[in-house]
Amino acid sequence: MAMNYSDKVMEHFTNPQNVGEIENASGCGTVGNAVCGDIMRVYLDIDENNVIRDAKFKTFGCGAAIATSSMATVLVKGKTVQEALEVTNKAVMEALDGLPPVKVHCSLLAEEAIHAALWDYAEKNGIVIEGLEKPVSDISEHDHGHGDEDDE
Ligand code: FES
């Protein structure tokens, strides 16, 4: 059965923006949804003024997961880390002109991937980003030049 995707979703699925990785990223976060098994990893390059210079992603998941990660990275670029918290799953969905109800969780995964990357950035720099919580779906292994064990 075909899903009713908006043109924007199809555009970001067939031609996703910001696919790839950032070497020595300021923050990198990986999240997974245990039910569908989809995984998203987001890399952020953040400058000394806490502005997100670049964002890239790798997603192993459904078409909506790819479209939402693409849109989420587009939306956070150029924003401060604080402003990036406003890129919620709702904002991502709105920017994509909506998602079918069974695909709403894909946009949540995109929000969480951004949060996981911001969390990693905050941890690496010993700062607190007000309003940011570590996503429960965070499955980051912190294998990007950051050796702390975070057992929780
Ligand atoms: Fe789970 Fe899309 S079906 S992220």
Q: Can you give a write-up of this model?
A:
One of its GO terms (biological process) is iron-sulfur cluster assembly. It comes from Adlercreutzia hattorii. GO terms for molecular function: iron ion binding; iron-sulfur cluster binding. The chain is α+β, with helices and mostly antiparallel strands. It has a single domain, classed as Sufe protein. Chain: A, CATH 3.90.1010.10. The protein has helices at 7-14, 63-76, 81-84, 89-95, 104-125; strands spanning 27-32, 39-46, 52-60. The radius of gyration is 14 Å and the shape is globular. Residues 145-152 have low confidence and may be disordered. FE2/S2 (inorganic) cluster (FES) binds at residues 33, 36, 38, 61-62, 64-65, 103, 105-106, 109. FE2/S2 (inorganic) cluster binds next to helix 2 and helix 5.
Topology, element by element:
Blueprint (H helix, E strand, L loop, with lengths): L6 H8 L12 E6 L6 E8 L5 E9 L2 H14 L4 H4 L4 H7 L8 H22 L27
Antiparallel strand pairs: 1-2, 2-3
Bound molecules: FE2/S2 (inorganic) cluster.
CATH topology call: Sufe protein. Chain: A
The CATH level-2 architecture is identified as Alpha-Beta Complex
- Please, what is the average pLDDT? 93
Radius of gyration: 14 Å
Strand content: 15-25%
Instruction: Identify the bound ligands.
Output: FE2/S2 (inorganic) cluster
Could you say how many structural domains there are in total? Answer: 1
Distance between the termini: 40 Å
Name the structural class. alpha+beta
Q: How many individual β-strands?
A: 3
Main sheet: strand order? 1-2-3
